[in-house]
Predict the structure.
Amino acid sequence: MSPVDPVTSPAQHVPIARPFFGEEEERAVVEVLRSGWVTQGPVVARFEEVVAERVGAAHAVAVTSATTALQATLVALGIGPGDEVVCPSYTYIATPNSIVNAGATPVFADLDAETWSVDPAAVEAAITPRTAAIMPVHMGYAADSAALHDIARRHGLAVVEDAAPALGAHTADDFGNRAVGDSEGAVVFSFHPRKIVTCGEGGVITTPDGRVAEQLRLLRHHHMSVSDVARHRAGGLVFESYEDVGHNWRMTDLQAAVGVAQMGKLDRILAERADIARRYDEVFLGHPHLRRRRLLPGSSDAHQAYSVEVLAGAPLSRDDLMAALQRAGIATRRGVMSSHLEPAYVQRFGRLALPHTERVSGNTLMLPVFAGMRADEVDHVRASVLSALAGPRG
Ligand SMILES: *Cc1c(COP(=O)(O)O)cnc(C)c1O
């Protein structure tokens, strides 16, 4: 490594995220290694119980990632070729990719300009006789569950909620204020390192429907009629059968062990993230050049990210602000992408125009928020953003 240049290297480096692991995760992994059972087994089952209990769902099924989980859920619901699924473009591209991977067609609906979640009116306008499901996204903060489930009920559609970054958030629907994950529809969470809690890679589907859960368990394991664990525990010989063509979408017990340990820290992680967001809000809410999403009444944000829009008329653009923060040693990311503008989707559908999606996506940036972020790091981000916005253009 070259020596650090004291002039150009920032005095402080604030990363966009930092893992939050301790001895609990280390012990859990060692225990699984010593047990001799490393693939999907008893610890995956335990992880599923913990997630289901946490969000108040009847069933939880773990698979390799949230992307797989979304695809698997569509397949389990019988949604595929010839079917359309309405989703936002303002999301990680995994959302529409999961629909394409299931053989169905994503139909992009625009954002609500204020809540930065898919606009229920745009969803309803996108419904055709081929529509089979709605796939709203909880981007850390909850989408408009009440309106979206109402549309789904009126049109007889399934709801598959992409809550990849929203573990711990709450949403308001006709039944009141509920944890994201406690829904009439299926809800998917991610355990990727950039999400609220992580196990390396992993996804979990929660559902109130035991038949959907059973279908997902078969799909992830080649439609094998008896689980590995049941076979090993059976006293005598057990021969399995394969009633249909399935997949290998299994999570490992090594990952699930990390997941269980992380779930034990979820409340602390959520509280730390909320505290950082509150300290940003103190100086950024009401700032003449910045805007944030409006939270829907009765809902909450798990603070997966702190996204803020740089308004037209600010002394510098979003990209210039990101560059200024980088010079101050602060890592940022562009806001959530406009999936419909990526070549993969322009090739399929042409250049769609989704004005609210493009405006929010093009002018927002994400500031660091992670459990374990120190107060001096938060202060440095606050001061650097304010000073950049106070300066002359350029
Ligand atoms: C991260 C993310 C995904 C993909 O999650 P993986 O577990 O990495 O597959 C899907 N949708 C949204 C909204 C995400 O933020």
Remarks:
- Residues 65-67, 91-92, 94-95, 137, 162, 164-165, 190, 192, 203 surround pyridoxal-5'-phosphate (CB under 6 Å).
- The first strand starts at residue 59 and ends at 63.
